[in-house]
Amino acid sequence: MRTLKIVLWIAVMFLLETVFADVIGIMGVVPDMLPAFAVSFAFCERRTAPAVYIMLICGALTGSMLGRSFPACVLAVACAGLAAHSLRSAVKFVPVWLKNAVIVLFMSFLLASAEYIFARATITPHGLFYSIIPYTVCTTALSCAVYPLVKRVFFKETEVSRLLRI
């Protein structure tokens, strides 16, 4: 059942990102749903093998989209997912959703910069402010929304307020 849920989530996110890009785009910027899902899943998964499979599948699907650099997407998603999987219990005093957001922020910035450089062979201020930074912000905001959903749907964990404990 869990595998079916994962396949359905990846298929729905891939369809949303490819077919309905005009609908979900914010000011012309479409956030990457699959890498945000892969990093969130890697944070929650305790075993390495399923997390690696999800990272590679999401990276390959992201790289297969038109106009994307396949090796850059696979490497960025795999590195971000492995960093997430290894850092999930490393720093105890930082909340997991914040670690998730920071890793997705760095991953999306590096991926957008690499794709912009591959396409234009240089970085201009116009490209930085109108292409790279909006993409990074949208993907990071999406990862903050995806993480609690992944945690609840796949791992049945819910956040309990520490203020209400007696």
Describe this structure in words.
With 166 residues, the protein is an all-alpha fold. It has one domain. The protein is 74% helix and 0% strand. It has seven helices and no strands.
Give me a quick take on this structure.
By secondary structure, the chain is an all-alpha fold. Helix content is 74%, strand content 0%. The chain is globular.
Topology summary:
Elements (H helix, E strand, L loop, with lengths): L1 H17 L2 H4 L8 H12 L3 H16 L6 H18 L8 H25 L4 H31 L11
Helix pairs in contact: 3-4, 3-5, 3-6, 3-7, 4-5, 5-6, 6-7
Strand content: under 5%
Question: In angstroms, what is the radius of gyration?
Answer: 16 Å
Multimeric organization: single chain
Q: Give, in order, the helices and strands.
A: HHHHHHH
Q: Note the total helix count.
A: 7
Query: Which stretches are poorly predicted, pLDDT < 50 over at least 5 residues?
Result: none
Question: Quick one: overall form?
Answer: globular
- Report the strand count: 0
Give the N-to-C terminal Cα separation. Answer: 36 Å
How would you classify the helix and strand content by structural class? Answer: mainly alpha
Number of domains: 1
Taking all residues together, what is the mean pLDDT?
A: 83
State the share of residues found in helices, binned by percent: over 70%
The major sheet is characterized as: none
Keywords:
single chain; 166 residues
